[in-house]
Amino acid sequence: MKHDMILNQPVIETERLVLRPLRRSDAGLLEMYGADERVARMTRTLPHPLPPGAVEQLIQNAQDETRAEDVWVLDGAAQGLGELLGLIGLERMDRDQSEVWYWTAPAFWNTGLASEAVAGLIGANPHSDKTLFASVFQDNPASARVLTNSGFEYLGDAEAFSVARGANVPTWTYLKRLG
């Protein structure tokens, strides 16, 4: 894997993807995919419907030098797959830990791209974490498979608020020790 620094954030290459920081030119595709209710309902933070300015705010937050979370675009342009296939992020926690989250556009579900992105992030370990956490909604077993295929271990059940659903949703929580 090749790493370059952009916006204090490495670019990570995998077999089919380049995980790169968000840029303003991503706004159109991000708005199209983020406005899809199927995508929003499987995330904690994407609202549905997507309000005006939400994508611009997401990009601005991702580019902020003082951010607590790094966000990467799953860019498959080099393989003819498109410039924005989804997003993956790492939110910094204390004690060398981060929480990983991800989503892919519906056209790329069940293609292994989310698993490839998670594996790439684990391999690069850009925050030098000792432990990664993740949680997925229990009605999204495909995302749970992404985590277990990447070596995450099931910790237990919990719940998290989904902005798109306007409710707390049962989750499965996972962890992966890196160090």
Would you write up a description of this structure?
With 179 residues, the chain is α+β, with helices and mostly antiparallel strands. It has one domain (3-177): Aminopeptidase, CATH 3.40.630. Helix content is 24%, strand content 35%. It has helices at residues 27-34, 37-40, 54-63, 113-124, 141-149; strands at residues 3-6, 9-13, 18-21, 69-75, 86-92, 97-104, 131-137, 153-162, 167-177. A 9-stranded mixed β-sheet has the order 1-2-3-4-5-6-7-9-8, covered by helices on one side. Strand 1 and strand 2 (9-13) form a beta hairpin. Helix 1 (27-34) crosses helix 3 (54-63). The longest helix has 12 residues, at 113-124.
Count structural domains.
1
Mean of the pLDDT scores?
Answer: 94
In one word, what is the shape?
Answer: globular
Name of the CATH class: Alpha Beta
Structural class: alpha+beta
Q: How many β strands by DSSP?
A: 9
Task: Write the SSE topology.
Elements: E1 3-6, E2 9-13, E3 18-21, H1 27-34, H2 37-40, H3 54-63, E4 69-75, E5 86-92, E6 97-104, H4 113-124, E7 131-137, H5 141-149, E8 153-162, E9 167-177
Parallel strand pairs: 6-7
Antiparallel strand pairs: 1-2, 2-3, 3-4, 4-5, 5-6, 7-9, 8-9
Helix pairs in contact: 1-3
Which terms summarize this structure?
179 residues; Aminopeptidase; nine-stranded mixed sheet; 5 helices; disordered N terminus
In short:
The protein is of the alpha+beta class. It contains five helices and nine strands, in the order E-E-E-H-H-H-E-E-E-H-E-H-E-E. Helix 1 crosses helix 3.
